[in-house]
Each structure stands twice: as structure tokens, then as C-alpha cells.
Amino acid sequence: LFAFGGGAVLPYLQFDSVAIWSGGQVWRLFTYAFVHPPSLSDLLWLAIEMYMLFMFGREVERFIGQRAYIVLYLVLLFLPAVVLTVLSLWSPTIFATSTALHFAIFVAFATIYPNVQLFMRIAAKWVALVFIAIGTLSALAAHHWQSLVVLWTSVGAAFLFIELRGAGPE
User: What is the distance between the alpha carbons of residues 44 and 77, in angstroms, rounded to a whole number?
Assistant: First the structure.
């Protein structure tokens, strides 16, 4: 949108609890994941996210099936937004990005295949736990409560979804 001069539309796509409650703009419950800041580092991170989604999402879909994968993706898209909407009754919230959603797909992968060797022969379950810890500590240090809520809602939903389908740690 920025390339075509439509950057002014982006604020209407990000999650904004006040706009949802007072303006009835319910599309914000899912369009927030399509909004990424236009900086070079953020766009590079988006490219990494898409590659990771392709690599790990493909394996998750192969294991649970196409329909279940679509349901998982929709749960990971809507559930954090719904939780933020409810929590916004106490504190208005603005949020945008799909980082936690795509990380949750990796958590689903690590739940299905916990002992798969990844980076430097480290098991997927440990990589997931380290990244969860880093994300949690980063959100706590920066006082980004909405990021913490989205991270833990996404991770918990992905883990429970896979566990309830009968897969997971031995």
C-alpha cells in the first residue's frame, strides 16, 4: 500500500479496540495481521516469517490435514484479537503484526515433532521454549502487555490445538 500511495489505509486495518467497540469495525479482528511497518528491518522480518510459515506450516498441515490447518490458522488469527478486545474493556489497545501468529505455527510444529533437530542440533522443543522466553522477557521489559497477551494466547492455542488432536510430546 505504501508503494502505491495507499499508506493512509493501514490505520484502518490494524487492531484498535476503541474502533471495534464504538465504531463496530469488526474487520479489525483479522486485518491486523496484514499490517506491518514499512521499515526495511520489519520487511526483512516479514520475509523471514513467511519463509518459516512455509517451512513449518507445510509440515503441520501435512500432519493434521488441510481443514484442521485452516481451522488452526483461523484460531490463531482470531483468538488473540478476541482476547485483546475483552481485555480492552479495562485498557484500550492498538496492535498490528502477524509475528505471534506465525511463531505459533512453529510452536505447533515443535509440539508435533519435539525432538526434531534444528539449529546447531538443538531439538525443536528447546528452540520454541527459548524463543517463548525471549519474547516474554522482551514484552515484559518494554511493558508491551498486548504483545505478551498475544504471544501467550497464540502459543497456548497452538499447543492445545495440537494436543487435543492427539499429537504432541511423547
Answer: 21
How do residues 88-131 score in pLDDT, each as one tens digit?
878 888 777 778 888 999 999 999 999 999 888 999 999 999 99
What are the residue ranges of helices labelled H in 88-122? 99-112
Find the helix or strand (DSSP H, E) in which 55 lies. helix 40-64
Closest CA to 38 of 11, 57, 70: 11
SS3 143: coil
Spatial distance between the Cα atoms of 97 and 95, rounded to a whole number of angstroms: 7
Q: What angle do CA 80, 84, 90 make, to 5 degrees?
A: 160
Residues contacting 115, CB < 8 A, separation 6+? 123, 124, 125
Cα 170 versus chain centre, distance = 25
- pTM (2 d.p.): 0.85
Q: How many whole angstroms separate alpha carbon 31 and alpha carbon 9?
A: 11
